[in-house]
Amino acid sequence: MVSVKELVELKCLRSIPLNYVCLKNSEDSILYSENENIPTIDFSQLTSSNLNERFNAIQQLGDACRDWGFFMLINHGISETLRNEVLRTSHMFFNLPEKEKMEYAGQDVFDPIKYGTSFNVMEEKTLFWRDFLKCYVYPHFDAPSKPPDFRETLEEFSTKGREVAKGLLKGISLSLGLEEKYIHERMKVELGSQVLAINCYPPCPNPELAMGLPAHTDHGLLTLLMQNEFDGFQVQWNGKWIPVHPLPNSLLINIGDHMEILTNGKYKSVVHRAVVNGKGTRISVGTAHGPSLDTHVGPVPELLADHNPPAYRAIKYRDYIRLQQTNQLNNKSCLDRIRI
Questions:
Q1: How far apart are alpha carbons 268 and 270 in whole angstroms?
Q2: Which residue numbers delimit the Fe2OG dioxygenase domain (predicted)?
Q3: Looking at domain 4-14+32-337, what is its CATH homologous superfamily?
Q4: What's residue 35's pLDDT?
């Protein structure tokens, strides 16, 4: 396995190898205006003791989940100092000697720590301009011990991220007309799975030809995402791509596949992708929050009716992750495999 970072540094590339050239259709370059009004949710209002303020925030949250499947979250309580430290130490991890990173080159989807490149090099004909580190950080915490302070920083960030996710899940339950702890209890979130994925997109000599990650959706209920100063995250809305420029100190939140399954399609798992640039290394840190691995997830009875029958077959969360992670992305959602 040759990482993208190693490829760039060893070859002094002026153009990318042919196996990294992504064939794109004409729609890939069509973007909405930079001024598109992406929803913003204020977490402090969502958890406020002021009932009117909280009610309005819950309504806004429901609208964002239904209409976009994506929003920016402000006033979430994760300090700028901690977020910057996560990005700094993540960058340091990818700067480690390749031999040290390869100690974590796992083979199985459920390896506690897995370092790799592209998405699934065993299946892909075209490789993606991306190196990654994935760690299962809950219910058991795993992370590399190098570089210094990396493990401790990720553990603190993961813990605070779970608190944010729990608050959002309460708001989402209420926005659906369910009890506040409905999703939390039905999905066994207390025993649930939290996967941290750190992506490194080195500068690319031909960014118009390569792709960091193609169009896809995320498994799980919610994904919390942050990035360094280089943009590259794009969401698909009404069939077109919108470049996302996060507000200062915000987190990007997208609805995952299992929230779409649970709500029988009312709340959409948003298709998104990562593009690359020729200016500098983009680092993104995402945490996917899902049910326990052995939980069967299907549409919940309270949201079904004669005119709204189940649209997805129930599937164990563990089996869904394996299904998604062992196949090519193919610019499609894995949800297509379980639609009724």
A1: 6
A2: 191-291
A3: B-lactam Antibiotic, Isopenicillin N Synthase; Chain (2.60.120.330)
A4: 63
